[in-house]
């Protein structure tokens, strides 16, 4: 399956120059740590007091004993995913009484149990409640409730049966068959709509940790953004940016944010460009298992994205034949725009959504450019990677997909 070089960025001052590993990609390829910030729609600006946040949220307050029973005492075989701030467990509750239910009955939930160490985990726990407790949108994961009891801090989410985009793109196995071109574009559009909603909220939100492991997929392949622990309120009034300590995930953060600590909605757009490129290529943003010169996906792929002859070097061979050259070039051009070094040249997320909607409605014949591909595409070496051709992407078994399993992330502040 290979190694996941996912590294979450530790918070430091913008002028700090040392790189610290966290959960997102390999710190070896980044010269600075980052701090990412964000904000909400119609939510009072953060930070707020714990009492104010909990009282104003539209969430269910759970008893620890109920969640303990719902997850079968947090049994290891109930673990859906693990991160630096805790583990996520599968559980069952009564959909009316919200009390623990027998496994296989009632409402399926995902319960995140935070580690009981450090203040950063508590801050992220509060941020999740602050944002997801106020928002409702088809492309944001639903937060059902929370538990605050003595030292215990837990969050209860809707269960996303197909797990994370990261798993579908990068994990190998009989269950995780490669997503088709059509489903990749569907997931990209859903995730883009989620970001656009946040950016257009009454009080703008900057998500600041957009990556494949934070994009969850439901049974119908609808994408939903999860993990709002690093989200912050955007700039207000005549301010052009939010100054913040650099936090986030290596490989996804915008260059100007890394250099200055100045955060804007265009920082999220850059991260979207990285994820779109991962979806087009089937490669991780950073992967030192690749040959020299191909460790950093953006640096390696950028020169090919605008070229009819070179674009096929980037595109995932597992979805060959499922798109036209025109569709591939439009998607690649969108990624290129999002990855502009100058933030002001990146499109706003509304424009990204419009472009992806056009791709969804494209009338081009997906297999019409077979001859074009043979002419323009470099010939694969007989010793190069070979992929089993699959037409579909829907898992054949009824087994539940694994939840995201990002690398462990450190405490930030």
From TrEMBL:
Keywords: ATP-binding, Kinase, Nucleotide-binding, Plant defense, Serine/threonine-protein kinase, Transferase. Residues 74-359 form the Protein kinase domain. Its EC number is 2.7.11.1. Belongs to the protein kinase superfamily. One of its GO terms (molecular function) is protein serine/threonine kinase activity. Residues 362-413 are annotated as: Disordered. SUPFAM superfamilies: Protein kinase-like (PK-like). This is non-specific serine/threonine protein kinase. The lineage of its organism: Eukaryota, Viridiplantae, Streptophyta, Embryophyta, Tracheophyta. GO terms for biological process: defense response. Residues 362-375 have a biased composition (Basic and acidic residues). It comes from the Eukaryota. It is an enzyme of class 2 (transferase). ATP binds at residue 112.
């Amino acid at each position: 399956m290979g190694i996941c070089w996912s590294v979450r960025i530790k918070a430091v001052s913008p002028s700090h120059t040392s790189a610290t590993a966290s959960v997102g990609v390999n710190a070896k390829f980044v010269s600075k740590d980052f701090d990412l910030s964000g904000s909400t729609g119609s939510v009072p600006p953060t930070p707020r007091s714990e009492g104010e946040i909990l009282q104003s949220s539209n969430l269910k307050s759970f008893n620890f004993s109920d969640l303990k029973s719902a997850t079968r005492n947090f049994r290891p075989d109930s673990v859906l995913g693990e991160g630096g701030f805790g583990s996520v467990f599968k559980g069952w509750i009564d959909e009316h009484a919200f009390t623990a239910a027998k496994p296989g009955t009632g409402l399926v939930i995902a319960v995140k149990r935070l580690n009981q160490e450090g203040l950063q985990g508590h801050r992220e726990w509060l941020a999740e409640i602050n944002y997801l407790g106020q928002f409702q949108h088809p492309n944001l994961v639903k937060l059902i409730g929370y538990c605050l009891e003595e030292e215990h801090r837990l969050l209860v989410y809707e269960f996303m049966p197909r797990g994370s985009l990261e798993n579908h793109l990068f994990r190998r196995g009989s269950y995780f068959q490669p997503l088709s071109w059509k489903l990749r574009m569907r997931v990209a559009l859903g995730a883009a709509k989620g970001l656009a909603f946040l950016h257009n909220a009454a009080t703008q939100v900057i998500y600041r940790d957009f990556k494949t492991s934070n994009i969850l997929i439901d049974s119908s392949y609808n994408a939903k953004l999860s993990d709002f622990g690093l989200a912050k309120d955007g700039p207000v009034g005549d301010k052009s940016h939010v100054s913040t300590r650099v936090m986030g995930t290596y490989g996804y953060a915008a260059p100007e944010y890394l250099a200055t600590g100045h955060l804007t909605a265009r920082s999220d757009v850059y991260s979207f460009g990285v994820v779109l490129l991962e979806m087009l290529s089937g490669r991780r943003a950073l992967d030192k298992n690749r040959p020299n010169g191909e460790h950093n996906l953006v640096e390696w792929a950028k020169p090919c994205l605008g070229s009819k002859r070179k674009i096929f070097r980037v595109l995932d061979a597992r979805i060959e034949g499922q798109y036209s050259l025109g569709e591939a070039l439009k998607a690649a051009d969108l990624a290129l725009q999002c990855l502009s070094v100058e933030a002001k040249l990146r499109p706003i997320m509304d424009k990204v959504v419009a472009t992806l909607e056009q791709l969804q409605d494209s009338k081009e014949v997906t297999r019409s450019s077979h001859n074009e591909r043979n002419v323009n595409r470099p010939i694969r070496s007989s010793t190069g990677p070979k992929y089993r051709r699959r037409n579909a992407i829907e898992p054949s078994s009824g087994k539940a997909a694994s939840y995201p399993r990002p690398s462990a992330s450190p405490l930030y502040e």
